[in-house]
Amino acid sequence: MNEHGQTELLHLASLALLVVSCSSDPPSPATGTDASGMLGGTNSTGGPATGAPSVTGSGTASTSTAGGVFTSGSSNGSGSDGGVTAGSATGAGGTSATTGGGLTTGGTGGMDEESPRARTPVNTGWRFTKNDPEGAPDLSYDATRQWVLPTGNPFLAPEDRAARPDGNLGDGLPYIAVGFDDSGWEAVDLPHDSAIAGPYTDSVSSSMGRLPSPGVTWYRKKLMLPPSDIEQSVFLDLDGAMQYSLVWVNGEFVGGWPYGYASYRLDLSDVVTAGDENVIAIRLVTPTPANANWDSGSSRWYPGAGIYRNVWLNTTSAVHVGHWGTFVTTPEISSSQASVKIEVTVDNDLEAQVAVSVSSDIYEFDAAGQRGANAVASLEAAELAIPGRSSAMTETVGSIANPKLWGVPPSQEPNMYLAITTVRQGDAILDVYHTKFGVRSLQFDGEGFRLNGELLKMDGVCLHHDLGALGAATSTRARQRQLEIMQEMGANAIRTAHNPFEPEFYDLADRMGFMVMDEAFDVWATGKASQDHHVFFEDWYRQDLRAFIRRDRNHPSVVMWSIGNEIPEQQEASGTARAQELSDICHDEDPTRPTVSGMNRAEPEDAFSGPIDTIGLNYQGTGVRDLGAQYPTYHAAFPDKFIVGTETTSTFSTRGTYLFPVTSSRGTPATGSSGVDTQAGSISSYDLYHADWSYSPDEEFESQDKWSYVGGEFVWTGIDYLGEPTPLDAVARSSYFGIVDLAGFKKDRFYLYQAYWRPDFPMAHILPHWSWPGREGEVTPVHVYTSGDSAELFVNDVSQGRKSKAQYEYRLRWDDVVYQPGSLRVVAYKGDAEWATASVETAGSPAKLALTADRDAIAGDGVDLAFVTLRVLDDSDRFVPHVAPTITFSVSGPGEIVATDNGDPTDRQVFPSHERTAFSGMALAIVRAQANQSGEITLTAGASGLTPASLTLQAN
C-alpha cells in the first residue's frame, strides 16, 4: 500500500563522474559447495584501509539534460558480483549452476580464468535461537551505534567517518564466545525467515501480517579455513538481514548494519584463523511494538525476520577489484558501434604501494547464463598505482561492433554482455572480476519514455519483497515464478516497493527483460510508524543510498532510482532540501539514470518537485479523493519532465468471490455495504471496488490513453503480499490489492490488465463463475475482459446481445443477466473478424482432486522448487469454484513439502502445514527436492469423500 509522494527531472549539465572506492566484492572460480567446508585462505596482514577512499580518476557523465529532458546513452549490467560461485546457486531457469539451468545468483559459471578470487555461499549448518541470554548487556541501537557506524565508512567522505570505540562490543556475552555450546539451538539453513512459520498472533498488527517478526534472534555458524597465502583477504557479504544486525567472528565484533534491506560487506581478514575452526555469531532484532496498532511497529507490511537473504564468503588476493568495484557505461550507441567505458576500483590491502595493470574483455552473455566463445571487444589496459592500505580508480575504454541492445519484450530483446576484468602485476594475475551488463539507451522527457529510441509505456506493477507462503526468505525460483506470471499478464516494469530487493531479483529482471524502478526508502527523517526506518535515517541515509546504487547500477533493468515513497516531508522545506541532497547522491554515484519519488500529497507549485528528475504521482495523476486529475496539471507546470503513475488503482478483490448486488458505476470505494463481506473477510472480484484514496483500473486506463505524455503506471499491486490487509484489518493477515493472490493464482483482474497491456494477444475472459446453487432466477451480472473491441455473450446458447467498447471503455458488461444453470459463452471480435472465445459451465458436486505442477523436473539441490496447484473437480472434470474441502498433502521420495497456501487472506493455518483448506476450489503445495538427491518425488493430495490425486516430479 502507500502513503503518497512526489518527483521531477534532471537539471545536470555535464557531471563529472566521481567514483569513490570501497571494499571488494565479485566471485570467481568455485572451490566448494559451502563455506562450512574447507576453502579460501586468510590475510594475516589485515584487510582494506578504513581511511578515505582515494579518487584517482574521473570521467565525463554520459548524461545530457536540457529543459528537464533526461537522456542517457549509458547501459549497465549486473556487476554486483564477478567470477564463479561455488555451490547450488539457483539459475534463472530455476535450476542450479551445476545443472546448466541458466543464470546463477553468484556468478556466471564455467569460467576458465586463473584467479585467486572465490565466492562461496555460507548458507548451511547454522544454529538459531530467539532472545538474548540472561544478563546480556544493552545491545540496543543507541548503545551499539558508535560500534556499528564504521561499517558504513567506505560510503562516506573522510570527514564524516566514524571511529570505533576501544575494546570489544559484547565482551563476556556467551553467544559470541568461540567455545559456547550451541548444540541445543535449532539447526537451520539460510536464507531463513524466522517468523514465517508462525504462529499467528494478535499481539502483532495485521499490517505486519500478525506473524511473530518482532524480537531478538541469534545465528551461529562454525567454519574451517585452510592454511593459505598470507596475502589473502577474507570478506563476509550479507545480502540482507532483518534488522539492526551485529556480527562477531571468533568473539570479536566486526560490524553490522541497521537497515534490514541493505546488502553489505565485512572484512574478516584480521579476525579469522587459518587452519582452525572459526565461529560467526550474528544478532538481529526487530523492535517489539508497544501494542498491535500498525503505527507502533517498525514496518507497514510484513518485513520478514532473521537472515532472510544469502550470505557469502569471499576470498581474494590482497590486491583486488573492490566491493561493487566496476561501473560499466556505454556513452555512445549506434547500430554499428557502442562505446564502452568500464571504471574499476582496485583495493590494495598490503602495506606497500603496488603498480598494476587493469584490462577488460567483453563477451556476449546468453539467456542460459553462458558467455560466448570469443571476446567481442578488448579494452586497452590501464596502469594504476595504488598506495598501501588504500584504493584507486581507473577506467578502460573500447567499443563493441554491431551491438545487441538490451530491451523489453515483445518488441525488443534482453541481450546481455559480460565484461571480464583482469588485474595483473607483471605476468601475475592478481584478480579476475566479472560484470554482466547490457547496452541500451534511455530517454525521459515531457513526451514520455524511450528505450533504444522506441516510445514505450511502463506497464508496471508494484511488488513487495515477500514471496507469499515462503515469507521473505530469498528464493530465485519463487521470484522467477512471480515475474513469469507478471510477464504473461503483459507487465514490463516492476517497482520495488518500498525498499531494495534481493540481488537475485535484478539478475532475473535483466535476463527476462523487465524495467525496474529501484526504490530505496519508504520514509526519511519523519516516520510513518514509531519504530520504522526514520529512527536511524539521519545516521545512515548516505551509506544506505550509496551502497544501494553501487550494488545495482550495472543492471540494465534498472532505469530509475526512487529516493522515497509518499514522504511525509513532501510539503515542507526540509523535504525539498533533502530531496535535493538525495538526488545529488544518486547523480554522483550514477549520472545515467533519473531520480523519482512517489508523491501523494504534493502540488505542482510545491518546491519538492524541483530537485527530483521526474514526476512520480501516487494516485494523484488520475485524481485522489476530491482532487482532480493531476497528470495534466503537472504536465502544464513541468512540460519537459517525464511523468509516470508511480502507484495506481489500489483495487481490492478476493479470488473467486462475487458479492451482489454489483455497483453500476465504473468503480466505488469498498465499504461494508458495497462489495465487502466484513464477516467472511472477502471483497467482490468484479474489480470495481477500491480504496477510498483511489479508483478502478478502468479509470487509470482512461488517463493513460487520454494523456499520451504520461509514461505509464505501476499498479498497486501485482501480487498480494503479507500484511496490510486494508480494509479488513480486523480479520485478515494479508493484502487484497493484488492482481494475483498470495498463492500465485490469477484473479479476474489479471485478464483485465492482460487485455489492456497485450492488445495484440487474442483473449477473452468471463466473470463470474457460473455455479450458483440458490441463485436461480436472480440477476447475476456478467462482465467480459477481452483484447477485442466487441463481443457477443450467450447464456445456454441464447444470445444476450453483442456489445462494443466505447471510447475509454475497457470491459464489456451485461448487467441484467439472470442466472440459470448451464453455460456462459462469449465470442470476441476485432473489427468484424472473430478474435477469441471463452466459456464457463455450471459444475456438479465435487468428486475428485487434480494436481498440476509448474514444471515436471527440478534440481536436486535443496534449493529449487516446484509449485503444484490443486483444483477440485466434479465427475466430468469441471472445476468446482465454490467449495472448500480440507486437503491433506503428503510426499514420498527425495523431496519435502516446504509450504502450502490457498490465497485466502483470512486463513490462519500456518504455512508449513501439510493440511490446507481449499479456497474457491484451489490450493497450493510448494515442493523442494532434498539436497544432493535425485529420483522421483510423488506428491499426493487427499480430502474426505473425494478421489485423491497424485503427481510425480523428477529431481535431477
Model description:
This protein is 10% helix and 33% strand. It is mainly β and 956 residues long. The strands form 13 sheets. Strands 25-26-27-28-29-30-31-36 form an 8-stranded parallel β-barrel, surrounded by 5 helices. Strands 7-6-8-13-10-11 form a 6-stranded antiparallel β-sheet, with no helix packed on it. A 5-stranded antiparallel β-sheet has the order 3-4-22-23-24, with no helix packed on it. Strand 27 (515-519), helix 4 (534-552) and strand 28 (558-565) form a beta-alpha-beta unit. The model is unreliable at 1-33, 35-67 and 79-112 (pLDDT under 50).
How would you describe this structure in keywords?
956 residues, mainly beta, eight-stranded parallel β-barrel, six-stranded antiparallel sheet, 10% helix, globular
List strands and helices in order, with pairings.
Layout: E1 16-18, E2 58-60, E3 63-66, E4 69-72, E5 118-121, E6 126-130, H1 141-148, E7 186-188, E8 215-225, E9 233-238, E10 245-249, E11 252-257, E12 264-267, E13 276-286, E14 311-316, E15 319-329, E16 337-348, E17 354-365, E18 377-386, E19 390-401, E20 416-425, E21 428-437, E22 442-445, E23 448-451, E24 454-456, E25 458-463, H2 476-489, E26 493-496, H3 503-512, E27 515-519, H4 534-552, E28 558-565, H5 573-589, E29 595-599, E30 615-618, H6 631-637, E31 643-648, E32 668-669, E33 676-677, E34 682-683, E35 689-690, H7 697-706, E36 710-715, H8 748-757, E37 764-767, E38 782-786, E39 790-795, E40 798-804, E41 812-814, E42 823-830, E43 833-841, E44 848-853, E45 857-858, E46 865-873, E47 886-892, E48 895-901, E49 915-917, E50 922-929, E51 935-943, E52 946-955
Parallel strand pairs: 25-26, 25-36, 26-27, 27-28, 28-29, 29-30, 30-31, 31-36, 32-35, 45-52
Antiparallel strand pairs: 1-2, 3-4, 4-22, 5-14, 6-7, 6-8, 8-13, 9-12, 9-14, 10-11, 10-13, 15-16, 16-19, 17-18, 17-20, 20-21, 22-23, 23-24, 33-34, 37-38, 38-41, 39-40, 39-42, 42-43, 44-46, 46-50, 47-49, 47-51, 48-50, 51-52
